[in-house]
Design brief:
heterodimer; A: alpha+beta; Aminopeptidase; 2 domains; B: alpha/beta
Chain lengths: 307, 239
Amino acid sequence: MVDDAKTAILLPPLSFLDDAPLVTMFSRVLENNVLVTYPVSLYTRESKGEMKWLGFVYAFLYTGKDGKKVAHITYPLCFDDNYKKEIYERLLKETEELASAFGASRMEYQGYQHVTGDVFKPLSGIKFGNTLNADFLDFVKEKGFVQKEVRSCYKVSLSEIPEEPVNVYTISDFPERKQKYLELCRVCDSFPQLFDMGQVSAWVGEHFFDEEWVIFAESGEERGVIRWFPQSLFGGGRGAKVVRLLFCGTPQFMCASIAQALSKIARSGIDKIQIADIPQGPIENAVKKWGWKVYETVDMVYYYGDI
Amino acid sequence: MTFRSPEAVVRDLAYLQNLGVHVVCPSHDIGLAGEKYWKKLFALMKKEQIYMGMYLEVWQLPDKRFIEALADVCDPKFTTMVITLLSGSETVRRKNGKYFSNQDFYKRVHLIEKLHMNHAPYFATGLPFETVETFDKTISMTEKFLSQFNPCAIFCTPLRLDPGSPMYEDPAHYNIEKHYQSFTDYYIKCKKRAENSPYDALGYHTEFLDGAAIFTLQQKWEAILRNHPVMAADLLHFV
């Protein structure tokens, strides 16, 4: 059945995409006027044209901070467990063709492991979203993907967060907020994509980029930003999820800024916070004192040829 | 105007959803069919578990209950309301059959954004009763909209005189001068267009604006958009 299935650049029904809360009908990325986002659906059609969905993966192409071209796989879905392996094989093959056409030097997938509780939205810092899929993580390991980096998400107890002498603030003016945020995306290594600030003027709007959801931190030459989302946006309660940490500075500055930002978030009536994007090392050592781990993201990479 | 039954529409929506369609565009504003109709339609959509986006061009300013109901029954992020304002001038708008104020319009747009739906205002050039001065209100409203709201698109197009339209049938009421009087006139226009020959695109002029003035206003409006691109692509794959 899978051999006869078709692939198309097509989203599956929206009800299948629970972990893609930031997707809109205008979600697509253009680079030099070329579309570089590919929702790849695998399906057959019944006699009256009705779709039988078999699988889905969202692939996108971008240039990494190291200047190398990257093909990224996210949101793998299988709708027929009887053919799971074949479906993943087929989806990977489709993505490999995109990667090859793009001249990618590597393929990436961000998986999840050690999930211990309810995960707040959005699950991922990837704009399209991602979904928990341990089988696909095992699958890419079998295919020769190697582990590159592990980051963690912690649920923190607000009473444990210390007060720190760091200036954290928000910016009410949207263009200024956007400019400052993008500048940090550009210079901080943890933001993976290379992009041209000259194109910023063409970047008009951003969903869920309200003033209070983007908290900046500064101390001398050190600076950073914390981006979070209230769960009420996604039909949840009074929780919050920190999705992106971008910092240029010492681990001490980063820890202090995170603590101050979490306190600021808590003051807005939030009673539960999950904080993702925490790198291993001193930052994690500090955050683990404030709460407990919810999950780990693991960056898997497959390198083509010499690196 | 006769609307198809909500049951028939929902059958089609279910069929389209099964085919993998994500966004449907009704041919007419379902609000025009009345509250009883759209309430029944939305209830049936819920019952049949239809959850799609909708691209809806609305005839008048939709009321709060309709907007909230639409956001509830459709996927708001895949739903767009195109609101036909026609003019930034309330007087010109009213004389052209749209009965709502700028203030009410802004309130509805705030609500649409709050519910995370997309929206797009629709202006027009060459409206009956429009002057160069009243068009300045369209310009300033466009600028305000671009700086204070987040539309997914913004439209402004010249009108074309359609045969059978109110402007065609009753030009004296609208103070316009028709350039096309007969089937032959329209046939010749279409023939010229097909041959890439110059032709009169508008087919009329108004009491205050000739064809050249209408196109000048159109260019003035388009100049704003060049400095404020809308529907630009995202730059980034990551938040």
